[in-house]
Design a protein that fits this description.
The structure holds two protein chains of two kinds. Chain A is of the alpha/beta class. In chain A, 36% of the residues lie in helices and 24% in strands. Chain A contains ten helices and nine strands. In chain A, helix 1 crosses helix 4, helix 7 packs parallel to helix 9 and helix 9 packs parallel to helix 10. The longest helix of chain A has 18 residues. Chain B is 31% helix and 21% strand. In chain B, strands 3-2-4-5-1-6-7-8-9 form a nine-stranded mixed beta sheet, sandwiched between helices. Chain B: Belongs to the ELP5 family.
Chain lengths: 289, 296
């Protein structure tokens, strides 16, 4: 809501690169980015959704075919925020660049069936969580594969990208951690490995870690971290709320081709602005210096 | 102990590499694959977590044809039509069949990446039984598996590790490229050996042990002390010649209370001050009690 309010009062001015600092930290740009990456976003007592907005606009700008599974917010929400970041979701959708699964609306049509047409098969796990996420995977793979098929539009868009906001919601809907890990594994095999695309997933992890609990978001996060190639962990400041520094991001490369083992961690502080966010080394906020 | 394990996993052995989110044991697993291939053994690799290309990366060479990869990466559950290997095929008969199908070599090492993936889909008791059957079945000489210990409950990790003849637990080391390995090895006689080593994995997957994790510091600082002389390039002199030493010894220090000083202080010379007191007329001086005026 905070985003929406801000957006509606402001003017839409498109400026080309809002997250240049983050891009330079990750050593990437819409023109050239590593393919086959699984980027895992996580947050703890904080909000990492600004990173989802970033990656959404980043990959749309990079001319990738984007499949977005939005489980927590409506299309209009993402659309207004993206507008602010200089990207039009509606246009991208029209052009066929963006496939947008609006989880909220789909689930409504399954939970309260009103007409004959009862939504797509993708959200079948809501009918019976034991089924797992095979249908959701098939939805994703059909969308991304079509883009790489022999059709005319395939020439237009680059490698496929899957974005999920957020995976931990599935746990509250009754899906097991194992099923979510299976889903992400299949997506990784198809998108990252076979089609050389990228994947960005967000996991919210607010609870304390519980040793005996095998179905907690913390457990999901661990499993996904083993799969991922890059993790961005957003945390609040350990010293408490601050007006000029909204929190810190821990960037961790899990593995890299070539030199194999490279678990290099970096910690940055960030501040989210109206349009984009700024990242800086610890203690070097402009409000402090 | 790590190089010995790399050199040879004992026949009928089960080696488990335990890792966590903090440090991935996959490179070490690949090192074991390469070591086995270098020993002219046939390696069967059941891979769930990474694609075949990624596994082949770094394992190229003349021995590559002795590496058989059964990739379960693309379709581990049979969701699509053409699965190569699914997790449901994880039982002794299927795997033995698979191995017999492709090779007739006697020394076969089975490598599983990772046991965690299978444990998520197979019940622990079935899983342990299958591992045990494979070890005793005779089709494979040794089994090497990777286990993400932080993804399972402690009890399950414990019972799987009880089956193993060797367990290597890896963790990040102090420096970026270094890692720490805690090794537990059970020999056939029942003797348990434990060791902790710091190692580095080179790009060609060779493992170099840097030292024992606890004894590294004294070992490293010992020779360094001999090499470096801290008094080598000083701007002042630390040593004394004989003459200098004598001069130093003859000098009496200001705070030393010598005999001369003592007498000088007790018998003051003629120039020193003295208190003279002549009683006034008004002074009421009592000879018998000189302290009468003190009001005691």
């Amino acid at each position: 809501m905070q985003w929406c309010n801000r957006v509606n009062t402001g003017l839409f001015i498109a400026s080309p690169a809002m997250y240049t600092e983050l891009n330079s930290i990750l050593n990437t740009s819409p023109e050239s980015f590593t393919k086959g990456d699984f980027i895992l976003l996580s947050d703890k007592q904080s909000d990492a959704s600004f990173l989802i907005h970033h990656f959404l606009s980043f990959y749309l700008r990079a001319k990738c075919k984007v499949c977005f599974l939005a489980m927590v917010q409506s299309f209009s929400h993402y659309s207004t925020v993206s507008q602010r970041l200089g990207v039009s979701l509606a246009q991208a959708k029209e052009k066929g660049q963006l496939v947008f699964l609006e989880g909220l609306q789909e689930s409504l049509s399954i939970l309260i069936p009103q007409d004959e047409h009862t939504g797509s098969q993708a959200m079948n796990f809501l009918r019976d969580p034991k089924l797992g996420l095979q249908d959701l995977y098939e939805f994703v793979s059909s969308k991304v594969k079509r883009s790489c098929g022999g059709e005319a539009e395939s020439e237009e868009w680059g490698p496929p990208v899957l974005l999920v906001d957020d995976l931990s919601v599935l746990l509250t809907l009754g899906v097991t951690v194992g099923a979510v890990l299976d889903f992400s594994h299949y997506c990784q095999a198809t998108i990252c490995s076979k089609l050389q695309g990228n994947m960005v997933m967000l996991v919210r992890c607010d609870q304390e870690e519980d040793e005996g609990d095998n179905e907690s978001p913390a457990c999901l996060l661990k499993g996904l971290t083993h799969q991922s190639s890059l993790t961005l962990d957003v945390q609040g400041l350990p010293t408490g709320y601050c007006r000029d520094i909204h929190g810190q991001v821990e960037v961790c490369w899990q593995r890299r081709q070539g030199d194999g083992q490279n678990t290099q961690n970096k910690l940055f502080q960030y501040k989210v602005h109206d349009k984009g966010a700024s990242f800086f080394a610890r203690g070097t906020s402009s409000a402090v210096l | 102990m790590l190089p010995e394990l790399l050199k040879d996993v004992e026949a009928g052995g089960l080696l488990i590499i335990q890792d966590s989110v903090r440090y991935s044991g996959r490179q070490l697993l690949k090192s074991f694959v390469k070591a086995a291939l270098n020993r002219e053994e046939t390696v069967h690799f059941i891979g769930f977590e990474f694609s075949e290309d990624e596994l082949r990366d770094g394992l190229k060479g003349p021995f590559a044809k002795r590496l058989h990869i059964h990739s379960a990466f693309t379709d581990p559950l049979g969701w699509t039509d053409h699965p190569v290997f699914t997790v449901h095929q994880f039982n002794a008969e299927e795997i033995t069949h698979l191995i017999k199908q492709t090779s007739h070599a006697s020394a076969v090492t089975l490598v599983i990446d990772s046991l965690s993936w299978i444990l998520r889909h197979v019940s622990p008791s079935v899983f342990c039984r299958t591992l045990q059957q494979l070890r005793k079945g005779g089709a494979v000489r040794a089994i090497v598996g990777l286990l993400h210990a932080d993804m399972h409950q402690k009890g399950i990790v414990g019972s799987v590790c009880h089956l193993a003849t060797s367990v290597i637990t890896v963790a990040p080391g102090m420096k970026a490229e270094e890692a720490e390995a805690k090794i537990t090895k059970r020999s056939k006689s029942g003797k348990v050996l434990q060791d902790e080593e710091i190692f580095v994995i080179k790009e060609d997957l060779s493992v170099i042990v840097q030292g024992k994790s606890h004894q590294t510091e004294p070992i490293q600082t010992g020779p360094e002390e001999q090499k470096m002389d801290p008094t080598a390039n000083l701007t002042f002199n630390l040593r004394l010649s004989d003459a200098e030493r004598q001069a130093k010894e003859n000098l009496s220090l200001p705070f030393v209370f010598s005999k001369e000083k003592k007498t000088a202080l007790l018998h003051s010379g003629p120039s020193s001050g003295r208190i003279l007191y002549e009683p006034d007329e008004n002074d009421d001086y009592d000879q018998e009690d000189p302290d009468d005026d003190l009001d005691v």
